[in-house]
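Submission sheet (multi-component)
Chains listed below:
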Amino acid sequence: MAFLELESLRKSFGATTVVHDFSLSIERGEFITFLGPSGCGKTTILRMIAGFESPTAGTVRFGGDDVTQRPASQRRVGMVFQSYALFPNMTVARNIAFGLRIAKRPEPEIKTRVEEMLELIKLPQLADRYPYQLSGGQQQRVALARALAPRPQALLLDEPLSALDAKIRVSLRDEIRALQRRLGITSVFVTHDQEEALSISDRIVVMNEGKAEQVGAPAEIYNNPKTRFVASFIGTLNILPAKIVDAGRGLLSVNGQNVATSRKLNGAKAGEARTVALRPEALSLDLGDGANTLKGTLEDVSFLGAIVRMKLRVGETLLSLDEFNQPSLKLPERGAEVAVACSPDEVIVLE
Amino acid sequence: MNRSTWRAWTVIAFAAVYFILPLIATFEFSLRLLRGQYSFEAYRIVLGDAKFQASFLYSTVLAVLTIVIGAALVVPTAYWLQLRLRKLRPVAEFITLLPLVIPAIVLVFGYLHLYNSSSFLPLTASERGADALLTFGYVTLALPYMYRAVDTGLRAIDVRSLTEAAESLGAGPTTILLRVILPNIRVAVLSGAFLTFAIVIGEFTFASLLDRPAFGPYLQLIGANRAYEPAALAIIAFLVTWACMGLINVVGRRGAARRTT
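Outcome: structure written.
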């Protein structure tokens, strides 16, 4: 049975509903990420799990217990905030000990646990510092230790990396994931950064306008986006209008050129309109074998070091494609008529 | 120096003279109790007067009570407004400003009317009752200053995240208020406290009409009957107020330094 269950959660603020009938089962020890643009309801769901917001309808269950009406202080969840929210009047050690002191643990146990947590976040030398004496990355690690110290049932992270600079963000992201694996703690992570979501999660919930658009493992979400929204939100994607030519053989027509896909086109009739999505890295300059190609005019070539990004005009749409840079690569000129190829496996047909 | 800076300096000099000259004159006058020489005789008499000591002590005790009650009233209210009822903040601001708009004399007549010895709550019938009424009156008078100081302090910290962080760690509302919020707005509460102290020490209307032996009425009594001592008292009152303001600055700067270094 799933450990954390969200059942038909709904949240309305006045006339606006920010979360519509949201259901999800999270396994014990799983790392789930809610990914979506701001205002998609991801933070609201997290806050309902934490107990900071009460749902308009629906149920939150922890290990089978209905906690929907239980206040945040009795849910035993660790929370990490974007703004760190460390207590400014307390030292690092006292911040970490706070939850244990509230739970009235004996003093020697608190001391051991605080030391253990400081080891875990690799900051034992900072025990007596105040939050204002720490960098953002250090503060967020302390916040993580503070949340984990009382051994919560689940760890909730609300955009914990958004306030940090790029380099720290990546290293702390890996650290959070390693820590989570080691402790085996059920975690829910909220972010608007798709790279963050892809790299850290067991499963991703892509959210849009208060609904889950797609739930799945990172590779599945990336390779098989189900909707146009997911496709455009995760990674860069070329979106093209297409028409079905032959559903059985997987043939489509894009701007009058035939393209084959290996995706199933269940019961589609010839002439029906569909949307095709192509990843820039799935496209390559055609080397002349002519299979599965699209012709167009090259509008731009930019050299980015490891990769070369090109923009190709096919009818109304501008197709973006990436090639790995190789010294042997002969780059076509701007304005040239070129063909790009991709394998039928890479041609994504959106619902 | 060009013309505009000249003008600015002229204005500043005029203002300085306007404020400082009477003060210097008062101070100089307070030193002339003994004929033909400057002395602190007036101060010696004032400070040695048992009534001065009693009334100053009385006002100090009332000021401390006012601060404690005022803070106990304002801190949780302002915290709750900031956390949950942000929409009501303008209402609270308006209400806390009322004591500045309504003259003290009107307030105290209202009190006398409501709480006189033949009313449902005859506070003025006993001395303790009148003391309590006076203290509550002072809490009202100090409300604009206390509320603003605390509100400013609360705006400077992330009340919501701190509260939620403490909640998720298992803390209840009282613990959060006493162990998380209050220590972080200590400086603001203290500056509100010093302002309250300065107001209560010099207050005349309430104390006089409720017939309590406070410092304000004593000041008035001496002023009406003596020549040099009132000047000395005025200077002492100024010094107390300045000491309060100085303390606000010292405490405030220490708090600010702790946050930014």
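Remark: Chain B has a mean pLDDT of 86.
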